[in-house]
Specification:
single chain; Helicase, Ruva Protein, domain 3; about 5% strand; 17 helices; ATPase_AAA_core; Zinc Finger, Delta Prime, domain 3; ATP-binding; disordered N terminus; nucleotide-binding; DNA clamp loader activity; Rossmann fold; Activator 1 subunit 5
Amino acid sequence: MEQQSGNKTNLPWVEKYRPETLDDLISHEDILDTIKRFIKEGRLPHLLFYGPPGTGKTSTILAIAKQLYKPKDYTSSVLELNASDDRGIGVVRQEIMSFASTRTIFRSGFKLVILDEADAMTKDAQNALRRVIEKFTENTRFCLICNYLSKIIPALQSRCTRFRFGPLTLDQMCPRLDYVIQVEKVNITEDGTKAILTLANGDMRKSLNILQSSSMAYDEVNEDNVYTCVGHPLKSDITNIINWMLNDDFSTAFNNIIKIKTEKGLALQDILTEIHLYVHRIDFPSKIRIHLLDKMAEIEHRLSSGTNENIQLASLLGAFQVTRDIIAAEAT
């Protein structure tokens, strides 16, 4: 791996440390065991990988391709199309069909067509693809990769063996992150590592991108620097906002929150997400917690529709002020 990192100095870390073989992959052992058995028996079916971003879908199929084909045969045996390529009905009928229909003369086995981000393909292209898959099964295998299974037509789903790649656990991500930190000699604190893993939320790609950008921006990667680098509210900021909403009058709290939002460039959506976690941790009576969560869900829905942030902030603040009044009334 040391030699590998020397050869790939200028690459982003997500590419530099992309797993080369199936054994390098850090998660989904049950899926990998099944696929290894398919390869060993030479009976690889059409595959459909789905799940959130950064969970190893593309890395898995590329590792499979490298295991199946020698470097000299790779280009002629693997066709990889991404969302950046045109994958309308014309490409399915021409490029994919011409690749799938040509046989390998001096080599037994099958070709591999990888369609990354297949959920971005049009319905017409997907319908055209189902006939191509059936027609050339003898000498070609297809692997479809997507984030949302519901965007793949049922006819394609039924032709493939489906594998769901779930978000990675902290136990799976930590060793890989620690390895990159060690090789790249990143000066990082324990709370910095924890912040990266929290923000990544099971996305290995995101964790490496945050680590790289934070290490380039700051001499020491700690919790505050990580949150600042990705534009996420600091825990201290959220604590202040909660205190203002629960203890200060409406005008003071509103002006203070507007000020901190402007100074630090915070989005109300991010503030709302963090406050939601706090609400679960604060010892509110269940009736109060339900009231707050209901109001926050409404505000989040309105924010996603593109409404005015200041009006929604006032609404959030109002919900907390009403909560405070209810608690005060019950205490007397």
